[in-house]
């Protein structure tokens, strides 16, 4: 079974040289720490920055320079800054190669719910709906089951949707799965020490198992 | 040339009245028009509709206007980090329209470009699509979203000249240039107001034609919401 760092490390292997990548808040943010040596990626922050650098050193914070999570950050050589309309223009026109975000639920046809729980204070979708509606490749980083132990990989989402038919791949503490074109979660890899039975028990949507399922290499 | 320069925030917002629709630039607390917000709080106009990506925090930014019950409706993409906001929302005192961030930016852009509506895939198949026209282009569904219609746009820039040309700094740019283009009347507060000729025409982000009033702001607090260091 993987911890959050393990999930981030496994997702980092999906990133190819030259990619422009948008990272959501939470586990996705950690992915930036594990990008393999020799792979150059440009991180997009939807508040208007390409080429997001690390957090500043203490005392060097600039209130005018933040990421989409409102954290102080830095730029890098080659960074570019633009307004919010252009930021979502590059997202909508699929210039961003990969979007990695968290989710509360994913359905077997690739629907995602991650912005609203009825009855609770709703904070808003931010840029998530724009990202999932347009991204050419979306990887979801999340726990396989919720705090109540219920599967988050479902036949249909029960929470209000963020986007339909958009998730391509899911990395959890138990497995790597892809959303099959015909519907269903195709099991690609098992986390170290996790059996197919464990994954089956934690997945309430249709699980597709074809041939030998290898263990993840991290 | 028409004189666009006003003395201060009070003069800039002199004819903003209760019940109007305002656009306010900024992302979180970054690049918000601090001086004008304080002047609006002082003036006490209410029943405002505010189009702004966020709603400030309890004691800063639009949060100050919420505290004085000046806002009737917020149009935003994300409104966390504000307890008073939450209280007013749950008690029904405040109306909130949550819209995707890219839709928010592009509805501003549409207004500034003179286009009545835009088509975006954001929100298709979700509750955001309820009641909206869906059009299919090349096999993909898009929602029709209308350009905003705001009485005033209030933005904050780093530098501006007396002709209203604006330059923003770093990610404090965010929604400011698109909102500047979108107001019937646009007010710009700047950290440095310079004479015409001092800004390089090639470096200008917002041409002065979009800006009706400009003033040199003061006492910028530039609060950091999430101070994060290495």
Structure report:
The complex is a heterodimer of chains A (218) and B (230). Chain A is built from 5 helices and 13 strands. Chain A has 218 residues and is α/β, with parallel strands linked by helices. Chain A has a single domain, classed as Glutaconate Coenzyme A-transferase. Chain A has a 10-stranded mixed β-sheet, sandwiched between helices. A 3-stranded mixed β-sheet of chain A has the order 7-6-9, with no helix packed on it. Chain A is globular. The relative contact order of chain A is 0.16. Chain B has 230 residues and is of the alpha/beta class. Chain B has 6 helices and 11 strands. Chain B is globular, with a radius of gyration of 18 Å. The model of chain B has no long low-confidence stretch (mean pLDDT 96). Chains A and B meet through helix 3 and helix 4 of A and helix 4, helix 5 and helix 6 of B.
Q: Sheet with the most strands of chain B?
A: 8 strands, mixed
Q: How many domains of chain A? A: 1
pLDDT average of chain A, as an integer? 95
Please identify, by name, the CATH architecture of chain A.
3-Layer(aba) Sandwich
- Secondary structure: helix percent of chain B: 10-25%
Helix percent of chain A reads 10-25%
| Unreliable sequence segments of chain B | none
SS-based class of chain B? alpha/beta
SSE series of chain A: HEHEEEHEEEHEEEEEHE
Count of strand segments of chain A: 13
Overall body shape of chain B: globular
Count of DSSP-assigned helices of chain A: 5
- Backbone CA Rg of chain B: 18 Å
Comma- or semicolon-separated keywords:
heterodimer, A: 218 residues, alpha/beta, Glutaconate Coenzyme A-transferase, ten-stranded mixed beta sheet, three-stranded mixed beta sheet, 5 helices, globular, B: 230 residues, eight-stranded mixed beta sheet, three-stranded antiparallel beta sheet, 6 helices, 11 strands
